Amino acid sequence: MFTIIPAILMLVVSLFTLALAIRLRLLTGRSPVVLTYGDDAEGFAGKLFRIIVAVLVMHLIAVAIVPANVDAGLGRIPSLDHPALAWLGLALMSLGGGLTMLSQWSMRFSWKIGIPEAQDAPLVTSGLYAFSRNPIYVGMITALIGTVLAVPNVVSVALALSAWISISYQIRMEEAHLSGTFGEAYLHYCRRVRRWV
After folding, report:
1. Is the pLDDT of residue 1 over 60?
2. How far is residue 37 from each of residues 33, 41, 57, 143, 155, measured CA to CA in Å?
3. Phi, psi (5° rounding) for residue 162?
4. Has residue 183 got a pLDDT over 90?
5. What is residue 113's three-state secondary structure?
6. DSSP type of residue 118
7. Residue 124 DSSP one-character state
């Protein structure tokens, strides 16, 4: 049963994100998924994001379906292989997933996956965004740290590290976009609210 829980948590967040994207598409007539496929920095970030998510989903499904095979093939990191850490990992996955979903919902029509060519929604600075400029990413990183503890193998660690690098890079691109779009209002927000927490 324990090996199924990480996949279930990932499924809940994925289905929520999909439902929110469909809802926004129906309400606005535009998809909130604006990841590009080009050869520029945004295209690279979009491709990397897709790869990380796909590998994470496949990894957690494999852990749920054939945990003994995953353990035999990848092994487990001995220093992290402890029941108390596994439960802490599940708690962090739950907390991070919940924070991700709540942060997505809090953005309302401003929520996007990727950087839009033209900003068509207001800057969100209230609610969770009054405490962190990037609560969605804080939630995602928290969930990935939880994944490392719940499923302590080299793939979980590689995914968490690559996601950290990818998200840090994405944040800087988004900050440049928002600074150019909202000008002094965004700079004032940055002085008032930290990037992470």
Report:
1. no
2. 12, 10, 21, 26, 25
3. -65, -35
4. yes
5. strand
6. S
7. P
Q: pTM score, two decimals? A: 0.94
Amino acid at 87: W
Distance between CA atoms of residues 121 and 130, nearest Å: 18
Closest among 91, 84, 117, 100 to 17, alpha carbons compared = 100
pLDDT digits 0-9 by tens, 98-124: 999 999 999 999 999 999 888 888 999
Please, what's the b/e burial string for 141-172 (b: 16 or more CB within 10 A of its CB; e: otherwise)?
A: bbbbbbbbbbbbbebbbebbebbeebbeebee
Beta bridge mates, 113 = 33
Phi first, then psi: what are they for 33, rounded to 5°?
Answer: -90, 105
Q: What is the pLDDT of residues 133-147, one digit of tens each?
A: 999 999 999 999 999
**What 8-state DSSP symbol labels residue 126?**
S
- pLDDT at residue 117, as a whole number: 83
